[in-house]
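User: quick one, sequence for these tokens?
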């Protein structure tokens, strides 16, 4: 049976084609994120929703879609836009796109680290502005990277991938997480440390924790105060993991040397003052934005949606309880 799939914003064509071969696909044709009201209106009666990290997927939205809705497939690995209990209650499977964006995101993290350490965007701005009068020894002095200490908060797939890439710079790798992770230690020689040691020893501190209530403002004024004045903070995870106002303050007062940010607390807004600072590299949430990655994310999305609509298990379901909940006979039956 051809069912209705609603896609909240344009994604790669092969994904739409794969879904469209079996079902009716409706894509939001406007190049902007829809408001919750617009989303609720558009998803009515659909069997699947393909969502983005900018769409809040909660009880009211699932109720608006109605009982035909059996899956919401996020075109993202992050899942902080999902209200998971609401989906379990309604028997709606939630899926994400793990694995395929690890390399792109880790490479981007290294790019951010190097860009800030060697002041590349700042130097480029200077050159384009026409102020260069020739080579001089003490000009745009940056931070050394080789053999420095790289601190990784969160030793999941992306954190581990960053550690592997950083070995090329002979960096000493330390990490912190809720528990030690054998894989990162065996692959890279990384050492498990407390959060405080991570803060006080890292020359570069990169964040790869998921956004959860307990990781919101994982880096705030206190943590920034524990970091070395020469340290560089890198964030390509989720914006609210860092208290952005506290970071602006710390950068303004040169309490740390710099920061490189791919994500922001209230996207697409930036904290007041952030973009006026020279000691920060800022890019608009593009860590996974490579052609191959975007296509592979779409392949996972279409596989997951087609699986659920034909009664099979999706590959990357983050709330398996929802599947049991839907198949269990209701108390009334
Ligand atoms: C994700 O997938 O969660 C990234 O933030 C965007 O690709």
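Assistant:
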């Amino acid at each position: 049976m051809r069912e209705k799939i609603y896609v909240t914003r344009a994604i790669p064509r092969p994904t739409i084609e794969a879904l469209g071969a079996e079902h009716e696909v409706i894509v939001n044709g406007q190049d902007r994120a829809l408001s919750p009201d617009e989303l609720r209106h558009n998803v009515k009666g659909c069997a699947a929703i393909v969502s983005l990290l900018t769409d809040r997927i909660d009880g009211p939205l699932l109720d608006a879609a109605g009982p035909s809705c059996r899956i919401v497939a996020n075109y993202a690995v992050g899942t902080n836009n999902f209200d998971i209990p609401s989906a379990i209650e309604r028997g709606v499977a939630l899926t994400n796109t793990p694995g395929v964006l690890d390399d792109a995101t880790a490479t981007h993290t290294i790019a951010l680290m190097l860009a800030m350490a060697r002041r590349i965007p700042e130097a480029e701005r200077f050159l384009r502005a026409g102020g260069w009068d020739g080579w001089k020894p003490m000009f745009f002095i940056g931070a050394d990277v080789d053999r420095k200490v790289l601190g990784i908060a969160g030793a999941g797939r992306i954190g581990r991938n960053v550690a592997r890439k950083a070995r090329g710079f002979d960096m000493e790798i330390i990490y912190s997480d809720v528990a030690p992770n054998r894989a990162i230690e065996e692959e890279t020689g990384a050492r498990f440390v407390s959060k405080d040691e991570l803060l006080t020893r890292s020359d570069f501190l990169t964040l790869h924790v998921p956004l959860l209530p307990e990781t919101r403002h994982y880096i705030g004024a206190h943590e920034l105060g524990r970091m070395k004045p020469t340290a560089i903070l890198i964030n390509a995870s989720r914006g609210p993991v860092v208290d952005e106002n506290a970071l602006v303050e710390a950068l303004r007062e040169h309490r740390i040397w710099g920061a490189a940010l791919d994500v922001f607390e209230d996207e697409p807004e930036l904290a007041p003052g952030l973009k006026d600072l020279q000691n920060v590299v800022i890019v608009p949430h593009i860590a996974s934005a490579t052609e191959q990655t975007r296509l592979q994310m779409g392949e996972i999305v279409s596989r997951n949606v087609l699986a659920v609509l034909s009664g099979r298990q999706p590959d990357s379901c983050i709330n398996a309880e929802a599947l049991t909940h839907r198949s269990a006979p209701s108390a009334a039956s």
